[in-house]
């Protein structure tokens, strides 16, 4: 039996689904609203995509997988879009090279916004007519729409991290948003980290029940976890700065061999988006770039924009390690952890629980692989997750840029070990 791409336990409430569709689509456009046409077209590196491409691709998803298959007499908006805005779906057909998305000066941003409006109108009309369709068709279409909305929420986060990388390439470090929240002087990092126990035993992890889960969160299964402890909060800037000032980026003993070679080749000396404004490597002149523009490095904010290699090196330097994804999920299920609200930058906190879950995606030491019993779904949508299960590491928890309600305890994000432009940090674990 082929495993479905995701599970949704919601009954067919087409009015509610249409309202959700409108909210998610409007949110994407709200995120893009501060951007000029020039902002929206530029691609700052091969791993990032222009905002205009995100706006088009998320509409392409609904046209390709929902409208083209289920709207009677569907008229394609523009036949060239099938290739231009296909991301990685080989079964759909040809794709424009990912690293060249910034060269797509045409269609214009205005044309893309028209495309979005047409897709929205047709999607809402389709949902209004679905009550007359067979139950099996309703179920299939509802699942595809739900997947499309979850997919668009993933792209909302990517849109923000991609535009952040783009703006960081500007010599003036311009802000995406001007309404930065006020904050007090950071002061020293508090020694407030505590350790939560995880007892040895057999636990159940993976998707169990709820409204939605991706296929890579399934099936639910049993794992054995050794006795361990996990930190009460993510590592903060003040703690990571001590690693930087102690020469952590110059000492190979903390690094995996491949990570050390990469660090030296890239000439790294601190996390992405940090800079020493005073130029003397002290602890008082450091700044970081945020979507609010440049700001003083706040010691109590969770460190972010670090690679797996940097996270692993810091953990070794600190006399600890990264948790496995099994330990992470078990620990978060056993203890009460505060869940942070979405924003544009991690929040500072001096409490023993720190910033809780959801401020930064937290690296684990687990390679991204299939759970026992995993099966790839049929058709092109089956390419969503399974084919990426190689040379990547799992991250858990969500970030401040993750849309509200999108992440969950079983959510498995994944990136290669060198990825830094995402809102990635770490939480320590240790053996007992």
- Give the rounded overall mean pLDDT: 92
- Envelope shape: globular
Strand order across the biggest sheet? 12-11-10-13
Structural class by sheet pairing and helices: alpha+beta
Q: Give the termini separation.
A: 41 Å
The residue fraction in helices comes out at 25-40%
Q: How many strand units?
A: 14
What is the count of distinct domains? 2
> What is the number of helical segments per DSSP (H or I, 4+ residues)?
10
Structure description:
This protein has helices spanning 14-32, 37-41, 51-70, 81-84, 109-129, 135-168, 237-245, 257-266, 308-317, 325-334, and strands at 6-7, 195-198, 201-205, 213-214, 221-225, 228-231, 274-276, 286-290, 293-296, 361-367, 393-396, 413-415, 424-425, 429-431. With 432 residues, the chain is an alpha+beta fold. The chain folds into 2 domains: 6-168, Up-down Bundle (Four Helix Bundle (Hemerythrin (Met), subunit A)); 195-431, Alpha-Beta Complex (paralog of FGE (formylglycine-generating enzyme)), CATH 3.90.1580.10. The strands form 5 sheets. It has a 4-stranded mixed sheet. Strands 2-6-14 form a 3-stranded antiparallel sheet, with helices on one face. It has a 3-stranded antiparallel sheet with strand order 7-8-9, with no helix packed on it. A hairpin with a 2-residue loop joins β8 (286-290) and β9 (293-296). α1 (14-32) runs antiparallel to α5 (109-129) and α3 (51-70) runs parallel beside α5 (109-129). The longest helix has 34 residues, at 135-168. The two termini are 41 Å apart. The model is unreliable at 185-189 (pLDDT under 50).
């Amino acid at each position: 039996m082929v495993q479905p791409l995701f599970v949704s336990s919601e009954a067919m409430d087409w009015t509610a689904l249409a309202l959700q569709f409108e909210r998610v689509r409007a949110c994407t456009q709200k995120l893009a609203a501060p951007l000029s046409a020039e902002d929206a077209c530029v691609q700052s590196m091969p791993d990032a995509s222009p905002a205009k491409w995100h706006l088009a691709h998320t509409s392409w998803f609904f046209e390709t997988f929902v409208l083209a298959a289920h709207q009677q007499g569907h008229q394609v908006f523009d036949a060239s879009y099938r290739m231009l805005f296909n991301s990685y779906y080989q079964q759909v057909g040809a794709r424009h090279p990912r690293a060249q998305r910034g060269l797509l000066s045409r269609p214009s941003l205005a044309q893309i916004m028209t495309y979005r409006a047409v897709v929205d109108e047709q999607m809402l009309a389709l949902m209004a007519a679905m009550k007359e369709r067979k139950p099996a068709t309703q179920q299939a279409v509802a699942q595809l729409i739900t997947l499309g909305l979850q997919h668009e929420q993933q792209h909302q986060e990517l849109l923000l991290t991609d535009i952040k990388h783009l703006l960081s390439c500007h010599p003036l470090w311009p802000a995406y948003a001007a309404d930065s929240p006020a904050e007090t002087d950071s002061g020293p990092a508090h020694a407030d980290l505590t350790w939560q126990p995880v007892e040895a035993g057999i636990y159940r992890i993976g998707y169990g029940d709820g409204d939605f889960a991706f296929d890579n969160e399934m099936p639910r299964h049993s794992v054995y976890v050794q006795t361990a402890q996990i930190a009460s909060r993510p590592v903060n800037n003040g703690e990571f700065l001590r690693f930087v000032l102690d020469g952590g980026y110059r000492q190979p003993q903390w690094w995996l061999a491949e990570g050390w070679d990469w660090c030296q080749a890239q000439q790294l000396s601190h996390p992405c988006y940090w800079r020493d404004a005073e130029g003397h490597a002290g602890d008082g002149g450091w700044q970081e770039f945020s979507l609010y523009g440049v700001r003083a490095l706040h010691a109590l904010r969770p460190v972010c924009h670090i690679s797996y290699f940097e996270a692993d090196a810091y953990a070794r330097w600190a006399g600890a390690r990264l948790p496995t994804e099994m330990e992470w999920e078990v620990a978060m299920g056993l203890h009460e952890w505060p869940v942070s609200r979405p924003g544009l930058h991690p929040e500072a906190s001096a409490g023993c629980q720190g910033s809780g879950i959801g401020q930064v995606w937290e690296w684990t030491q687990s390679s991204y692989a299939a759970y026992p019993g995993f099966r790839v779904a049929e058709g092109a949508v089956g390419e969503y997750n399974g084919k990426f299960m190689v040379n990547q590491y799992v991250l858990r928890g969500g970030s401040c840029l993750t849309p509200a309600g999108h992440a969950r305890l079983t959510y498995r994000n994944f990136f290669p070990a060198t990825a830094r432009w995402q809102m990635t940090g770490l939480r320590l674990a240790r053996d007992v």
